[in-house]
Amino acid sequence: RRTYTLMAPSKAIFDQVVAKFELYMESDAGESERSNAASSQPEEDFENADPHVGLIEFPEDASNLEILLWVLLFPLRFLMHVTVPDVRVLDHHGNPTNSIGTAALAVGMCLLWLVVGSYAMVASLEKIAELLDIPDAVVGVTVSAAGTSLPNYVASKVAAQNGFGNQAVSNAFGSNSFNIMIGLGLPWVLYTSFGTSFAPYSGLRDDGITQSIEILAGFLLLFVILMGSTGFVIHTWHGHLFVVLYVAYLAFSIGQVYL
User: How far apart (Å, rounded) are the C-alpha atoms in residues 233 and 227?
Assistant: First the structure.
């Protein structure tokens, strides 16, 4: 026994269905052409979205001060341009053309330049402090601390602007951990190993280091409490609070030296 019925559309309905399918196919073909046209010009889009300026390129539409600084720093710019590979080169698909080895070399050379620049800055600040009769503790907690933390600030700022808040915060805490464990630990190991023939070193002066550590530990605890209370959401007033606390810390540290 047949339990179904065969039905055929009328010619008018069939023509309407065919017309609808033709419109759909035409619109789909148009979308494919537009996507192909967009993918054929990725380099221009990348260049317009994020232009990269070389270190030795002369600044256009720059002020007299910017041009003067560019001329004075040109030898250093040229050395960095020669020694640090440029990993920003992209192919026509927008993918990096350099290998992992080239990227690792660029990172290593950047770290080397940071070491050279930090050493030059610290040596210069020590000489300036000696000439101006400024205590080393004041120079270290102000200009030296800000100068050595400037690369970390730039890296965290760029990460935060790109929406990577966790990376920005991790960079800040990771850099401090590196400074304490490697920046202090490695020189102490080398000095006590080769400078004192493995004998303990007892010439380190306090100069308020214990109080500074306690204050910084309190700031860290405050940050953890704020993050836990807000569900790991950073608000604008958090930044204002820590800027005020940093200014208060500077005033306290400098006051400890002179008062």
Answer: 6
- The model's pTM is 0.56
Fill in the DSSP letter of residue 162. Answer: T
**CB 103 within 8 Å of CB 87:** yes
Q: Which pLDDT belongs to residue 43? A: 44
User: Does 2 score more than 60 pLDDT?
Assistant: no
Q: What single-letter DSSP state applies at residue 225?
A: H
DSSP letter assigned to residue 233:
-
Cα 148 from Cα 123, distance rounded (Å): 13
**pLDDT tens track for 66-113:** 889 889 989 998 999 899 988 877 777 777 777 888 889 998 998 898
Task: Check if the beta carbon of residue 125 is closer than 8 Å to that of residue 139.
Answer: yes
- Residues near 155 by Cβ (< 8 Å), separated by ≥ 6? 168, 171
Length of the chain: 259
DSSP type of residue 51: -
Q: Please give the structure tokens belonging to residue 15.
A: 């023509």
Q: CA–CA separation, 259 vs 255, rounded Å? A: 5
Quote the CA–CA distance of 200 and 213 in Å, as a whole number: 22
Q: Go through 123-146 and write b for each residue having 16 or more CB atoms within 10 A of its CB, e for each that does not.
A: eebeeebeeeeeeebbbbbebbee
Residue pair 84/106 in contact by the 8 Å Cβ criterion: yes
